């Protein structure tokens, strides 16, 4: 078997979705932790000279960058326990929602990084995005992929290990049973899946990490 390495950063939702995919597939790999954001390894810069970011999957010496690209690569190389449907239309729909979720995380980060009026705007914006995801993406399904976890679920999975501790640090909760009942049920189903449950960062550790980041953003705003 060709050597398989994953360069990641422990709290990153982007490397986490790749870890989940590999675990769902039962594929063995070597995980290499990067010291981000200020001490990127020479290997990371060598394997991803364009964006200089994690995650990077290196398979047989060949690097694959960008988490969505990596997820599709994994699904094609290891087709068992598929992340994407075989049907062409269903596959296009799954890719659409994975891309939509991935491209609309800005307000989620803004909710955490901003304060006052700017934070309120981010809350309203992300709430509207979540409404679209619930009504048009998840609909009445258990997972975005139906009865099994699919690519869009892995991308949206950031809400269980990144958004939830963000909410605790900030003191505001988005996905509640009364506001987003179907997404609330999805969170329960996804977080209770054995592979997901066994491969999330320690919640307290993430909260502590985010508290430091929150103070950094607060000080940056006060000094600007």
From TrEMBL:
InterPro entries named among the record's database cross-references: Glutathione-S-Trfase_C-like, Glutathione-S-Trfase_C_sf, Glutathione_S-Trfase, Glutathione_S-Trfase_N, GST_C, GST_C_Tau, Omega/Tau-like, Thioredoxin-like_sf
Enzyme class: transferase
Pfam families found in the cross-reference section: GST_C (PF00043), GST_N (PF02798)
Residue ranges that the Swiss-Prot or TrEMBL entry lists as coiled coil: none
Keywords: Cytoplasm, Detoxification, Transferase
Recorded superkingdom: Eukaryota
PROSITE patterns: GST_CTER, GST_NTER
Primary localization class, coarse: cytoplasm
BP GO annotations: glutathione metabolic process; toxin catabolic process
EC numbers: 2.5.1.18
Residues covered by the GST N-terminal domain: 2-82
Name the UniProt record assigns to this protein: glutathione transferase
Organism name: Gossypium raimondii
Lineage: Eukaryota, Viridiplantae, Streptophyta, Embryophyta, Tracheophyta
């Amino acid at each position: 078997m060709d050597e398989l390495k994953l360069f990641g950063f422990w709290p990153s939702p982007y490397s986490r979705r790749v870890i989940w995919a590999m675990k769902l597939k039962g594929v063995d790999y070597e995980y290499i932790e990067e010291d981000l954001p200020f001490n990127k390894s020479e290997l990371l810069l060598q394997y991803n000279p364009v964006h200089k970011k994690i995650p990077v999957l290196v398979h047989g010496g060949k690097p694959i960058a960008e988490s969505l690209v990596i997820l599709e690569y994994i699904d094609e190389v290891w087709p068992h326990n598929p992340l994407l449907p075989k049907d062409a239309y269903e596959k296009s729909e799954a890719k659409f929602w994975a891309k939509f979720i991935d491209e609309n995380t800005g307000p989620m980060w803004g909710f955490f990084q901003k304060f006052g009026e700017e934070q309120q705007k981010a809350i309203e914006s992300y709430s509207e995005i979540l409404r679209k995801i619930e009504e048009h993406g998840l609909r009445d399904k258990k997972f975005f992929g139906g009865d099994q976890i699919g690519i869009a679920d892995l991308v949206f999975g950031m809400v269980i290990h990144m958004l939830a501790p963000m909410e605790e640090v900030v003191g505001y909760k988005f996905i509640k049973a009364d506001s987003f009942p179907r997404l609330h049920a999805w969170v329960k189903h996804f977080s209770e899946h054995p592979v997901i449950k066994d491969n999330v960062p320690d919640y307290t550790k993430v909260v502590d990490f985010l508290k430091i980041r929150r103070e950094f953003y607060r000080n940056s705003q006060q000094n600007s």
